[in-house]
């Protein structure tokens, strides 16, 4: 494949790659055309008509969905044939990430000590294969993004495709990478690196210690003459034969870095320093550390992590942590979060440089990790790098016991200064126009005893670095039980309190499948897709309601929430709907990053009419 592209002129090669990815227009399938054109349809242009049949329709959508529930799932490519036959135009939209990677501070190029996590856990694609989440009460979840630089999702597939949202909803704060373990065609490594740099912003290609220069699978556990030469063929095919000293860096010139296997077998973790230091590539060599400490003479194990983290000092190398799922696989899963925080990453946090996502206004958080029921501790609410507007509105939604006071403290950084300045925002009166306007735009009300506290911060040119919530009790100090629930925090430009005029467009329904329910009500499974061109949405609320049927005298039902969607595609699964014949309406409500909700007139709408074999549709 690489040779064919190399022998063509640049324009022909570009067209060849484009056809390989997208396929010729005239060969596109009928199903694909339907999925693309549905986004161009005007709202309420038609009603989808379905006949309720069990079995046949289910098998037709099994390729991209779970065989039992039709939930969207993700998996890897298992053969060279699958890889070569893949086309971008045929990609399942659920598998496409829609959230761009955020910048980070400091950037990777200026990080003195880097940490790579290789998530090798029980073969991969466990609960996290379900792209819309799982109802598991005790899932594995990785959320210590502030401690690491590179996350590699490893499975035993030929090509691993990580889920778009990653193991948690917040992977937009870090770098993704592809780790190469190709057992042949070293020329491909150089070509892959070039293409990743061209097509994927922030993409990295790392060579995993597996193959020596003869092509044999033999782990070296360090960068040495054997595995450095494994990619020498790639380098020599693309340029004149290197001198002996140049051959030593072939693997690093062919890609972005190298990380070793974790067994020493007499080797020293820093044995490669003499070679990499000459070329100035120490930051691109990662020493493997196995959390399980499998085998003899292994770098790693939980005892290793209980010692001061000293790889950066002893070897001038970076760390590649293999299988941190040890905490989940071997320990009490009901104590997973405690063990993950205190017994593992808590041992490392003081030795790892902090990383902060560089966000922009508006910023909203509900403090939800995506799993679990409660969170305790005295940690900061958030730590990041957030440029503030000249007049920034900070709003906290909370519910506290009687006599409990809640107030905010912030640390801001002045322009071109390293020193932080502490700010204690003064909460605006409840009837202040900004507080009232914010509560109205977010559709907050006081019937559930939630308090909306807003403060106006004047910080032109400053950046928010830390935000803390202080909770105190009125009166004399004494031991007493209390509760305080933090619902949401929002920071936005005080001059942006308005709604966009755009509406959700082109809502379409496809890949419909029916499952039998426990009663006469069938279970609807269908994929929704839409377009929303306004300011980025935080999420979408998917609703449904009955319009008519099965009794034509029945009035329309209320709007009912189905779930949240975090992209512009969503799979409705196992939704109990009225027995046929009936007419339903599916609705999509955008919630903006500011927390603002749009009126129902701007929601997306699509209708689904269905009947059984012996009834007439509505």
Automatic annotation (TrEMBL):
Residues 1-38 have a biased composition (Basic and acidic residues). It is found in: Cytoplasm, Cytosol. Keywords: Cytoplasm, Glycosidase, Hydrolase. Residues 1-44 are annotated as: Disordered. Pfam families: Glyco_hydro_85 (PF03644), Ig_ENGASE1_C (PF25529). GO terms for molecular function: mannosyl-glycoprotein endo-beta-N-acetylglucosaminidase activity. Residues 498-610 form the Cytosolic endo-beta-N-acetylglucosaminidase C-terminal domain. It comes from the Eukaryota. Belongs to the glycosyl hydrolase 85 family. This is mannosyl-glycoprotein endo-beta-N-acetylglucosaminidase. It comes from Mugilogobius chulae.
